Amino acid sequence: MPLSQRFTLTRYLIEQRRRFPDASGDFNALILDVALACKAIARAVAFGELGIAASQQGGDLGGNLNVQGETQKPLDVISNQVFTRMNEWGGHCAGMVSEEMDGVYQIPSQHPRGKYLLVFDPLDGSSNIDVNVSVGSIFSVLRASQDVVESGRDVTEADFLQPGTQQVAAGYALYGPTTMLVLSVGDGVAGFTLDPNLGEFMLTHPRFRVPADAQEFAINASNSRFWEAPIKRYVDECLAGKTGPRGKDFNMRWIASMVAEAHRILTRGGVFMYPSDTKDASKPGRLRLLYEANPIGFIMEQAGGRASTGRHPILGVHPTSLHQRIGLVFGSKNEVECIERYYTEPTKIELNSPLFAERSLFHD
Ligand code: F6P
Question: Which CATH number is associated with domain 216-344?
Answer without folding.
Answer: 3.40.190.80
